[in-house]
Amino acid sequence: MSRNNFEACLAHVLKWEGGYVDHPKDPGGATNHGITRKTLSAFLGRAVTKAEVKALTKNQAGQIYRLRYWNKVKGDELPQGLDVVALDGAVNSGPSRGAKWLQTALGVTVDGVIGRGTLGAAINVIDRVEVIQRACAARMGFLHKLRTWSTFGRGWARRVADTEAEAVAMATQSPERVKVEADKAQKARATQAKGARAAPVGGGGALLVDLPQWVLWSVIGVLTVCTLILALNAAQHARRADAYRKKLEEMTNG
What we know:
The chain is mainly alpha-helical and 254 residues long. The protein folds into two domains: 1-173, Chitosanase, subunit A, domain 1 (Up-down Bundle), CATH 1.20.141.10; 175-254. It has helices at residues 6-16, 37-44, 50-54, 58-70, 82-93, 95-106, 116-124, 128-144, 149-172, 175-198, 206-209, 213-253, and strands at 31-32, 35-36. It has a two-stranded antiparallel ribbon. α8 packs antiparallel against α9 and α9 packs across α12.
């Protein structure tokens, strides 16, 4: 149980949700400390201006996060590590999505509402690290499909990697386990990168040359997609390894 972990989880969220932003490609519009104009309006029960969003304090943002996100994902009842995974996903993509990624990782009914079944599975899980990593992988799968990935994807990917490392550190309280996961992520990066380099995109020798042209182009298309997937996976594993190493340094140095 993590009734006293809200402030630590909030600190992680606020590290990624900076000050006032009004990016033209962000569907949320004007945002401050991660709180959109729509969310602030709902919290206050009236329409708000961009100026009011800009004037929002961290303390006010924290109140909103507790009421509309932390409480929605049952943060006080989730074990440490799983709470920050659910909260950060909820803040980034909505409480329902944050709940669904956790439910997917736990292997329970995916309905976007954390109830007794989800909480029971979360509390009784044997290895929280595996659940954290599966939830973060599910989140990445969703984000990759968004139309705004080309604009915000790199930042999202770094955030998910950092959330994974933070969650593992919270769950295990073990620098040794964090180091193990850093090493695993680095090995996974090397494996995926090697696969991307080895994929015979645009070539393949006599066997490919002898194929009918339409089949050849289909094969090349498939190989290109596979190579791209391997390269994207390698890049994300590199981000994960870096996030784990930074968390390890923080835990050991203080």
